Amino acid sequence: xxxxxxxxxxxxxxxxxxxxxxxxxxxxxxxxxxxxxxxxxxxxxxxxxxxxxxxxxxxxxxxxxxxxxxxxxxxxxxxxxxxxxxxxxxxxxxxxxxxxxxxxxxxxxxxxxxxxxxxxxxxxxxxxxxxxxxxxxxxxxxxxxxxxxxxxxxxxxxxxxxxxxxxxxxxxxxxxxxxxxxxxxxxxxxxxxxxxxxxxxxxxxxxxxxxxxxxxxxxxxxxx
Amino acid sequence: xxxxxxxxxxxxxxxxxxxxxxxxxxxxxxxxxxxxxxxxxxxxxxxxxxxxxxxxxxxxxxxxxxxxxxxxxxxxxxxxxxxxxxxxxxxxxxxxxxxxxxxxxxxxxxxxxxxxxxxxxxxxxxxxxxxxxxxxxxxxxxxxxxxxxxxxxxxxxxxxxxxxxxxxxxxxxxxxxxxxxxxxxxxxxxxxxxxxxxxxxxxxxxxxxxxxxxxxxxxxxxxxxxxxxxxxxxxxxxxxxxxxxxxxxxxxxxxxxxxxxxxxxxxxxxxxxxxxxxxxxxxxxxxxxxxxxxxxxxxxxxxxxxxxxxxxxxxxxxxxxxxxxxxxxxxxxxxxxxxxxxxxxxxxxxxxxxxxxxxxxxxxxxxxxxxxxxxxxxxxxxxxxxxxxxxxxxxxxxxxxxxxxxxxxxxxxxxxxxxxxxxxxxxx
Lengths: 224, 428
Prior knowledge:
The complex is a heterodimer. Chain A is of the alpha/beta class. Helices cover about 40% and strands about 25% of the residues of chain A. Chain A is built from eight helices and 14 strands. Chain A has a five-stranded parallel sheet with strand order 2-1-3-6-7, sandwiched between helices. The two termini of chain A are about 20 Å apart. By secondary structure, chain B is an alpha+beta fold. Chain B has helices at about 5-55, 60-75, 135-170, 170-180, 200-250, 255-265, 265-285, 295-315, 335-350, 380, 400-410; strands spanning about 80, 90-100, 110-120, 125-135, 295, 320-325, 330, 355-360, 365-370, 410-420, 420-425. In chain B, helix 1 runs antiparallel to helix 3 (about 135-170) and helix 5 (about 200-250) packs antiparallel against helix 7. The radius of gyration of chain B is 49 Å and the shape is rod-shaped. The chains are: A alpha/beta, B alpha+beta. At the A-B interface, helix 1, strand 12, helix 7 and helix 8 of A face helix 5, helix 6, helix 7, helix 8 and helix 9 of B. Chain B: Keywords: Kinase, Membrane, Phosphoprotein, Transferase, Transmembrane, Transmembrane helix. Chain B: Its EC number is 2.7.13.3.
């Protein structure tokens, strides 16, 4: 699966590429408006990460030209501006998601994952991960046809882990994922532990192997 | 409030009244002076005529005495009588008030008198002439009446003229004012004032135009600044965050290294939070959130509290909600959300373990209270970085943002501490 990273900050683009280059993701990079337009016209991608402020033009124009060409790429805007009007405008023009900088790579990865799944699977929204069968649309999880009753937050967590397979995720990234902007306003991220404990317990109950590993007490990793 | 032109009108009227009132005695004194002068002249003429007349007619002493007697009887204002040569003195002029014997109503009349000595055929005679003068009160009354009549005309004229002038003269001012009322910095519209031929208004318009232009450019620069600052700061922050995430992926990390790296996440989050909040404040001051819609406050509180439920639970804090679901407020939803979140996060983070948060929305008043031990310093509470303290680190901007949002919509926010409860109440 090909991902295009349109970002003028070289190092950030490199980090994103390194993080995402697991699985079957193949990352390409465009640092300017011109490069981005060239790449979009010549190739097609599964997902495009789009920075709005670029040397040579605005990311919104790239988005417009994508839509004009009727391209089906999923687009996630990764903007530093975090201006509400940009967000609304971007989503109106046809971006699929919006992520304000600074973000955790794990958050970005989870969003890329969910966009690619949504685009790829069309009507059938079933994702298979190890022995898990995850229905993205119905928001249900099954192991060997046995439904696991997960709360919304547990389901979110599970998808987050699956989208960051074999990667270590810090507790603060999980906290931010679960409570968005609120996470950094509160000192305690202990609630994350409670949700993970519950998720593990429910997976254990249906005899799912333990893929969820704790790393040194503050990080987690889904192995599979 | 009174209109600008009414103020001088009042003063002018009082001044006119003062001047006209002062003119009454002045008129009286002048008129009286002229009058008495004329009468003195008149009396002098009579005297000269009598002296000449009596000296010219050739009569004997007895006939003269008889004639004078008759004269004295028929001319009561004039008496002439022989005088001893020793009695002859200087002429005297006087004014006297006495009973008018020819009038039935016993009124007192004023007379101007001349006492003089004539020389008829070489013998002295004493002549007294008294001429009726207008009385003091009558003269004063007439002058005062006329003066006040004219004062009335003056005031009436003032009022009518004032009305006409204010209508015409202030028209360009009113138009300018209307233009200013319609002006909205957010829309960056240009203000075009109507032409005026009045120097002061022309000057006002020029100054206003400059002021607006300056403000508009400052506004634009501010807006650009907040966008650029955001970009410039958020990108390196994003880089830091991604570097940390990458470092965590290193399999060779020791536990100590891992902990050090992941402990950097918290201060990094705090920096990005402060940055976000500062930008929000800048945008708020720039009035960059102009769309307002009716918001169901109760529903928004429900949403926010459910988002915060995890955190409250983790600290064993119970939440008591009492919400009137009829309350609608008008504002920008994003801002109202931020305001609620900041207040609620405050109530949770500055709470005691096992404490409670009570949220009460009744009518137009929202109160959020939480347990606490001692009152906060109210004067520092809403200041930027006012509550930043090492043992309770926070961005220190939450409440100043709350205040800024409240000010923007003219809502009232206040803080109270009573019976171990910190209470913030917002009146919409």
